[in-house]
């Protein structure tokens, strides 16, 4: 097999339970239509128990592209720099002869020790990770996209994000069934697709690595026509949440902070009011729009897949589809990617090997994490996996072989220190280095450990939606202790080991792998 091409598709804010292939396999009605993603699932392997190891966007993408847990790369929030000493996928690809192209963004803030404090990249949430070759810029400030829209002849409003306001409405009070002002021919999803096809056609069949990023289904939750009316709110799944925000808030101080502080304006262009007070009709409409944004991406992927088919490159290309993180979508009275609930951390992962796949259509149940993507790509291309990498290659699963020492739990983290759009520390009475949590979760139990705040413990068999905290229940005391020890052991095992295999001695520098 001529293993030469890699297409890494990274969407933004797409939940794992919005994958029709998984819904159908688990006996649920597939309320969402994604024929092109369905094809990828039919030909490849879909990973059912896959999580991002951290949220939000910047930290999640740092883990995805370095193979490191948050506790090691320490780009703990959007706007926090990524240490330049960390190796990443792009740099690794360059070491084996690839010029890794990127469409989209990585939300990476540069190491301030490697540049000037006057570097304009510090004026934005983030920019492009070192090592990538941008062929379709989005960051900083979406200038690449807005410039493209203007070049197409569309008149941009003075406040450029107003293109996502519904047509004919001067203000938005929340979820809406109206289309955005920007036609789908000029949408951000169309832009990314056009950039990807321009790059691929320019390669003219030469080997490529392309990181193809999409902004959607990230908010604002307003879709262009005809996607705005593709789904009916009444067909959407109902939210999973307590009877009211006050009941939900009682579970934990961090939950209360987010329920009290989330604003609608971050999710609906121009909206006002609390995100926790959306009624069920609003949530169903939001989800219908979310599905419309997903279907637009699926149609765009269809164009890319068709080009690979037409040029005979489909069977020469490793294709990986994933997201940076999930989205609460009203579950637990929350919006966004925050906290400790599954909705924020469980994400899609589909991998199609080049050529005939050994397990077409398979659903793999092993616990996998976003840090596994980098080593999988390098392993497939014959490159070296960095010693510091926390993830493991997933290639054995494509052949139906689960490694004997595979992880038995999922692990993920969240650092909720102050950033310019969220300030939990003064409300919760915490120092920034106390504002963090980690999760250890298996099929039966979920343990959430906080640096200072009280822990959480859920029996997922009896309480799959995580409403009943058992951390203080004497009947579960031994289990809480056991899972706390699991969390500690996990952190000890994955402490940075970049240089720990070297030894100095009478014979000079040596290496010890075991």
From TrEMBL:
GO MF term set: metal ion binding; sulfuric ester hydrolase activity
| Keywords of this entry | Hydrolase, Metal-binding
Which GO cellular component terms are attached?
cytoplasm
- In this protein, which residues make up the domain named Sulfatase N-terminal? 4-382
The name this protein goes by in its record: DUF4976 domain-containing protein
Organism field: Rhizobium jaguaris
